[in-house]
Amino acid sequence: MLCPVCRGANIKVLDSRDSRDGVAIRRRRACSDCAHRFTTYERIETSLPVVVKRNGGKQAFDRNKILAGLKLACRKRPVEDEQLEMIVAAVELWAATRGEREIQAEEIGERIMQHLHVLDPVAYVRFVSVYRSFDSVQAFSHLLNEMEKAAQANPEGQRTLFEIDARGHIQLTPRPEDLGEPSGEVTPELAGELAGEPGDAT
């Protein structure tokens, strides 16, 4: 292994520990030539399906591309890099154990959304706003309002933000009032939080 800074080969391991999800070993390393420190993850090699993009093109499953999209969505949010690594590992394991040679990019995106929704609501909305094609401002406003109500609701009576269809896709349930004018309940503070767009994660 070469140092990512000076390309030196004199690397030593400072610390090794299991990741939080138990599917990887996290190692802290240091270069003896330039003193740069960095982290690597050791994982079991899996056979991943080919990703079919929206335009019909195909490409190899790229965990680094998913991680880059997650980092953009979580920019300036209280989220640790290890938490994002856990999401990528979970999505990767899910894709590898489906027993299929190909997987739709939309399915990967929906899976990522489920993990982000649990991890951080602002990062979730950032990712959804870019990944899903909203047909109107009302649909996006509906998503934000549903998240706000869910955060304030009693757990026993809490409404779900979305439903999962037979293919595992997230489906937002429209309400009659959402067909009218936007409610205008998106505050300037929330709008500021949502600034910044993640890239295509798949």
Q: Could you please describe the fold and organization of this structure?
A:
The chain is α+β, with helices and mostly antiparallel strands and 202 residues long. 37% of the residues lie in helices and 17% in strands. It has 6 helices and 8 strands. The strands form 3 sheets. It has a 3-stranded antiparallel sheet with strand order 1-2-3, with no helix packed on it. Strands 5-4-6 form a 3-stranded mixed sheet. A two-stranded antiparallel ribbon has the order 7-8. A hairpin with a 5-residue loop joins strand 2 (24-31) and strand 3 (37-43).
List keywords for this structure.
single chain, 202 residues, alpha+beta, 3-stranded mixed beta sheet, 6 helices, 17% strand
Work out the radius of gyration.
20 Å
Number of domains: 2
Task: Please give the alpha-carbon distance between the first and last residues.
Answer: 27 Å
Can you count the helices? 6
What's the mean pLDDT score? Answer: 75
Q: Which overall shape is indicated by the principal axes computed on the Cα atoms?
A: globular
Numbering strands along the chain, what is their spatial order in the largest sheet?
A: 1-2-3
Helix content: 25-40%
Q: Poorly predicted ranges (pLDDT <50, ≥5 residues)?
A: 153-170, 172-187
Would you report the number of β strands? 8
